Amino acid sequence: MSPEIDTRPQVETQTLEVNLGPQHPSTHGVFRMVATLDGETVIRLKPVMGYMHRNHEKIAEGLTYIGCFPYTDRLDYFCAMTNNLALAVAIERLAGIQVSERGEYIRVIMAELTRLVNHTAVTGFLLNDMGAFGTPLLYAFREREKILDLFEAASGSRMMCNYVRPGGVREDLPAGWVERAWEIVRAYPKFLDEFETLLTKNDIILQRTQQVGKLPQPLAVSAGITGPMLRASGVNYDIRKVDGYSVYPRVQFKVPLGTVGDVYDRYLIRILEMRESLKILEQALQALPTTSPSISPKGAAMGKAPRTFRPPKGHAYGRIEAPKGELGFFLVSDGSPQPYRYRIRPPSFINLTVLEDMCLGQKVADVIVILGSIDIVLCEVDR
Amino acid sequence: MLPAAEALKTELEQLLPGVSVTLEGTALAIAAKDLLAVSRCLKDTDRFAMDYLSNVTAVDYPTEQRIQMVYHLYSMSQRHGPLTLLVNVDRAQPELESVTPLWRSAEFQEREVYDLFGVRFQGHPDLRRILMWDGFEGHPMRRDYVVEDQDNAPEPVR
Amino acid sequence: MSSLDQLFVEVTRSLVSRLPPWLAPWASMLATIGAIAAAAPVIMMYLTWLERKLIARMQNRLGPNRVGLYGLLQPIADGVKMFIKEDIVPRGADRLLHLLAPIVAVAPVILLFAVLPFGRNMVGADLHVGLLYFLALGSITSYAIFMGGWASRSKFSMLGAMRTVAQIISYEVPGVLSVVAVIMVTGTLSLVGIVEAQADHWFLFTPWGFVAGAIFFMSGIAEVNRTPFDMPEAESELVGGFHTEYSGMKFALWYMAEFLEAFAICAFTTTLFLGGWQGPPIPFWILAALLALLVGTAKSLALPARGLGVLALVALGGLYARQPIPSWIWFFAKTYVLVFVLVWLRGTFPRLRIDQLMGFAWKFLLPMALVTILAAGLWSLMPFPYGTVLAVLILAASYAVLVRWNRPASLSPRTYVLAD
Amino acid sequence: MARRLVGFHVLRGMGVTLKTFCETYPWGRAVLRVLRIPSTNGLVTIEYPEVKQQHSERFRYFPFLVYDGTPDDLRCVACKICEQECPPQCIHIVMEKDAQGRPVKVHGRTLPAQFDIDMSICMSCRICVDVCPFDAIEMDNAYELSASDRFEHMLFDKQRLLKSNEYFQQIKPTEASEVDQRLAAKQKKTAAPAQAQPASAAPSSPPAAPPGAGPAAPPTGRTPGPQPTGPPRAPQSPPPGA
After folding, report:
1. pLDDT tens, N- to C-terminus, chain D (242 residues)
2. Residue D196 domain flag
3. Domain end: D142, D173, D204, which one?
4. Which residue of C41, C86, C289, C389 has the smallest Cβ count within 10 Å?
5. What's the CATH number where B129 sits?
6. Same domain flag for D20 and D68
7. D29 and D67 in one domain?
8. Does the residue D150 lie in any domain?
9. Are A138 and C55 in contact (CB under 8 A)?
10. Can you give the pLDDT at residue D5?
11. Three-class SS of residue B68?
């Protein structure tokens, strides 16, 4: 996509090289962009990462498979539950562990609640990057707190849940949890409507987001973009539908697709995805089986004595539709209780590949908005 | 749908005569030299239409003196996959052609493999360290990398 | 103490009359200057407190309530913090300009209050060219901001300064033109004259007055760099815009300049379009009763204090029951309503991008201001029914044309496929 | 027509903010009720020091060691499983040994002389509780632990970690009752065969009083002699049916 930079002969001006980050109020963590500006227009933009790198993969090679779970909470700290789920799916594919029926439904409920939390927070931060003085962000966080209290009631911690295990979930849901979940799921659409009246047709937001940071479809597919960003460009690829893992095939829901693929489409796709998640939650809460245990016997035994779990030699790649995109775990096992190789396929990291392509020719103010619409979390980018 | 591994192997060998494809479970192990040929064939023939390279990573086997590159390929248009490609590279002189010209998603992941494993990729548009700071020596994800004492780690040069 | 309305005027007159005659003019001048110089920082401090409380309430929060009752001592705490904070000057900065910029920013803003009619014959200096004085002083802040941005020698400040100059200049033009309509109708530049001209009907309720007032208020917001026009100090991309490199007392001066000018814009909009201190003759006891009710039901106020407050207000209500609500209360009430609108905008909207900002000023506000002058002319010359109707028609037509012409093609509504 | 006007949606957006503004005041809520505008939220801020947030029962912060009856009666047998399984390796256990280096047995159970958890490293992931075969370690929910220095204060030694089973029942009733049921069941299993043995073997002489070695204060007040048939712990009331 060659940027149409004004090449008519002009007054000879110098380009300005600005470091946006790593200490910068709106880079979602410690992320730096070396931007070369011609006045306000961006000519070159090189992302610089690695400030948050703590090599989670090397640490995991010294831990048991169960020991890795608390570390996955710290990957994308907005969606601890889906990070655990991705690792659990990978281990189950590696060792062929069966998941109990009730465990599957609890996992889907937790994953969709995490999607609500993530998309609400991201929309709030996107508005904060555009300059709204925190009001949409605080409305988003007010709703997020209610769901985090649900996570705390079930797993024991609001953000670092460490709740999903291969074979199901670590502990069964406490009494009264399902009723509280129903309350929140029923109250959420009202909040979304209020959120949309504040944002979706607001003229200032329309001007700031439409035709900004457009991502054409072929570039999106070739660059391995996944998640709401890909669907905003119109590609119908949702891993919940493609792989059909867990109980998603038994649940009816739609996949919203955008047309232009700019910041406005990504924003609205996230809002529509939240409405779809609410439909999934209603169906999952309705069909939650009460008979089967929340974790399969093999999974429970593994939880009790992690050292005894020795998966067969070989490798496996498990992936799920995390709120930010395709989160995958590639595990190589050499028969010992510790993974030989533990690779994380981070959606935020790979979605950043096209940051420069989208920002060329845009204004400085748009670079921040585009970065906000990509929805990255630096702990997952740097691992 | 993607054919079973054996049928895939035979089909590939018919399409690309000089290529030797061996089977490892459901994955296809190919030699380093025909990586580009196989990937272009997988990407362009509409029978496979592997237009989405989901994951590029490396696994270090110090005892066998080799680093194994792992590619997970999917097709977004025909919604099938994964097809796992395994490529072995000598551990002392790890050299390989880059697949970034075919799939842009490999750009950052190959830079990460170069940074953490030391595998050089020819034809990569911008092969630099991505996670470590530029002045860092050594490749931390290699199994023989000694994690030096944290207290007197060298001051990062930035 | 005959009338509450002229309370301050009589107090100063009685004090001044005790002095020897040759000293009297100096003393009254000193009294006025003293009043304004003391009121300005207090207004500024409690404007920051008010803004933090209002925005907090718009976000389901409480706002400062730890420092003193309802957080009333918070501004004083902020002031002390600003005094104590180290004043860092970047190494490459031009020290003199770096020091001068905040001073040049604050001085003209305090001078603005000289011509402002706070109440019936309560005005610092009743200049015949009061409005011109206001417009002239209003544009000095762009120099100060550019000085600050340039002197800090940092890329962010530089970008912020460049944006400010562009923004303030392009928003002064529609601001001044919208005021021309008022001058044309009232025939005088003196603010006191304008307020008196609005005795029976406020300009805001005339067709051209409403549009001119909206344009003046919007260009005022842009001149003060507040949301949705706060590009120069856009936190999200320029970290702090022109005052990134300021800290300590200099930053406090920047803060004071910004808030005082915001208050001045609201005050002048009230004076020009909302009838300044003019107000319907509501008896004073209604206001006193309302305040007593408010103080009585304040839960977190200690019981004795609450009782005392109610008693004082009832006594005051009784004393001045018959008199109308004093003019200066009307003035401050209207101004603080506009301050609430200012804060309300800041709590709701993201900011416009710099090129959209410019487009809005030149391509929308400027033509509308010109049309408003035409409408004002028609309204004032033609007899009642025709003038108003014609003005409304012209304004509506021009609004529609401009909106259609300005509408960027991209704002087409989108359809979203829900695939499975 | 009004919907397409430029400013219409801008004003509706401001309406949302105004409604939230009014919701936080009692008079505001009254006005909203009169105008029949649905309003749900009101103030969500909790003024922390005065009002504490209500945590759910499973809220976990840092682990603690459980003891029944007296602090010397702790359940931990220093088997070091949790030390191995702890991902950040923040638990350090030293088994109590007598002069010759043989582990000291009290009541037929070994016990830790030293049990440190470095709370600045612990990430409260609850894996130690999952893997502990003796239910000796549980998760606490006291989170007000701010300290001035990181090393001395945040390194919890055995004394600071020990908390009674009653405390555990008080903060986590359902979990505590499950643990007690499990222990009681295990107790019945071990107590049953013991009942058969004393009938046959003559009551052996009480073992020598445990030597005074070991840094911890010598456990006094311990009733030597073979395990009486009933539960050796302080007799608890039968755990209420969960």
Report:
1. 555 666 778 888 888 888 888 888 888 888 888 888 887 777 888 888 888 888 899 999 999 999 988 888 888 898 989 998 899 989 999 988 888 888 888 878 888 889 999 888 899 999 999 999 989 999 998 888 887 877 778 888 899 899 999 999 999 999 999 999 998 998 888 877 666 555 444 444 444 434 433 344 444 333 333 334 333 433 343 344 33
2. no
3. D173
4. C86
5. 3.30.460.80
6. no
7. no
8. yes
9. no
10. 65
11. strand
Domain count, chain D: 2
Which chain A residues have a beta carbon less than 8 Å from that of C54?
none
**Whole-angstrom Cα distance, residue C68 to residue C420?**
58
DSSP H helical ranges for C21-94: 24-58, 74-84
As for how many domains chain B has, the answer is: 1
Closest residue in chain D to residue C407, using alpha carbons only = D6
Of C156, C354, C418, the CB nearest to A256: C418
D187 vs A9, more confident: D187
Report which secondary-structure segment, H or E, holds B90: strand B80-90
The closest of B57, B41, B50, B107 to B82, measured between CA atoms, is B50
With CB atoms and an 8 Å threshold, state whether D85 touches A71. no
Read off the pTM.
Answer: 0.88
Question: With touching defined as 3+ CB pairs under 8 A, do chains A and B touch?
Answer: yes
C-alpha dist (Å) from residue A340 to A58, A66, B94: 10, 14, 20
Q: Is residue B153 part of a domain?
A: no
- Taking the C-alpha atoms of residue D38 and residue D19, their distance in angstroms, rounded to an integer, is 9
Q: D21 and D67 share a domain?
A: no
C57–D13 CB contact, under 8 Å: no
Domain residues for the domain of B28 are: 5-144
| pLDDT, average across residues C240-252 | 82
Handedness of CA C249, C251, C254, C255 (dihedral sign): negative
Kind of pairing, strands A325-333 and A314-322? antiparallel
CB C333 within 8 A of CB C13: no
Strands B95-97 and B120-122 come out as parallel
C364 DSSP 8-state letter: I
Q: Is the peptide bond before B82 cis (omega within 30 degrees of 0)?
A: yes
Q: Is the pLDDT of residue A302 over 70?
A: yes
Chain B residues touching A314 at Cβ < 8 A: 25
Q: How far is A33 from chain B, CA to nearest CA, in Å?
A: 13
Amino acid in the structure at residue C176: V
| Judgement on whether residues D77 and D165 belong to the same structural domain of the protein | yes
The two three-digit tokens of residue D234, written as one number: 């302080």
User: Does A353 or A2 have the greater pLDDT score?
Assistant: A353
> What CATH number is attached to the domain comprising D140?
3.30.70.3270
Contact present, A211 and A260 (Cβ < 8 Å): yes
**Pair B102, B39: CB distance under 8 Å:** yes
D74 in the same domain as D26: no
Domain, as residue range, for D94: 63-173
| D189 belongs to a structural domain | no
Last residue of a domain, one of D143, D173, D203: D173
Distances (CA, A) of D121 to A231, A381, B148, D89, D185: 41, 23, 20, 8, 35
- In the chain, the amino acid numbered C102 is P
Q: Do chains B and C touch (3 or more CB pairs under 8 A)?
A: no
Interface test with A, best of C162, C416, C418, C420 (most A CBs within 10 A): C416
Chain C residue at shortest CA distance from A23: C239
- Residue from A241, A236, A364 nearest C162 by CA: A364
Return the residue matching tokens 């003209």.
C108
Instruction: Give Cβ neighbours of residue A6 (< 8 Å, ≥ 6 apart).
Output: none
D151 shares its domain with D73: yes
DSSP-derived secondary structure for A249-287:
GGS---EEE-SS-SHHHHHHHHHHHHHHHHHHHHHHHHT
Q: Residue C341 CB: number of other CB atoms within 10 A?
A: 15
Size of interface C-D (CB pairs under 8 A): 38
Q: How far is CA D227 from the centre of its chain?
A: 28
Measured distance between the N- and C-terminal CA atoms of chain C, rounded to whole angstroms: 79
Residue A347 Cα, gap to closest chain B Cα (Å) = 10
